[in-house]
Amino acid sequence: MARNQQPWATRTARDRSDAPARGRLLDAAETVFARRGYSATTIADITAEAEVSRAGFYVYFASKEEIFRVLAVRVRDAFLAAQDVPGVDRDDVREVVGASTAAFIAAYARHLPLLRLLEQQAQTDDDVRAVWQETQERPIHRSARYIRRLAAEGRADPVADPLAVARAVGGMSIQFARLTASDPRGYDAAVRDVTAMFLHLLGVGPDR
């Protein structure tokens, strides 16, 4: 393996493809890992769930460990994508905050079972640990940069240091996402309440 190459990057060309079989395998793996846990899951379980042959599995992934690490990266990217808020007026702070909060809570609730497994595997797998730390920290630091920019432009007056506000909002979002995972009917209320608290912490008035 090349120096500094990630263990799950051995099939770079195929990983970048949109092959339907690869997507089915990843979706199936997330479902099975969530259902059975990491240790009990086998490649046969994943291929059966995906309706893909065992040989088809090895076209895209070398092992159970590799597909789990690819899933870890996919989850990390889902949280980063939640902050991109496409189609939203980026000059409208309230709209940006509402859309990004909604996307984050939805992503966290959707991936909650896998996130729990990622946290467990991070204790013993250095590669998973690195992705887990990025999943936790990168969205917070991106949010802090956004808050700093708003403050510099005079469009927000945060009640505390931007990084502290970002961490507080991240923690609230996670707690409400867990509630949403338990009862999806509470999703809209969760988004509304976290958005309101985020805006309050930003010090955003009605005209901002």
TrEMBL record:
Residues 19-79 form the HTH tetR-type domain. Keywords: DNA-binding, Transcription, Transcription regulation. It comes from the Bacteria. SUPFAM superfamilies: Homeodomain-like, Tetracyclin repressor-like, C-terminal domain. InterPro entries: DNA-bd_HTH_TetR-type_CS, Homeodomain-like_sf, HTH-type_TetR-like_transc_reg, HTH_TetR, Tet_transcr_reg_TetR-rel_C_sf. PANTHER family: HTH-TYPE TRANSCRIPTIONAL REGULATOR BETI, HTH-TYPE TRANSCRIPTIONAL REGULATOR RUTR. This is TetR/AcrR family transcriptional regulator.
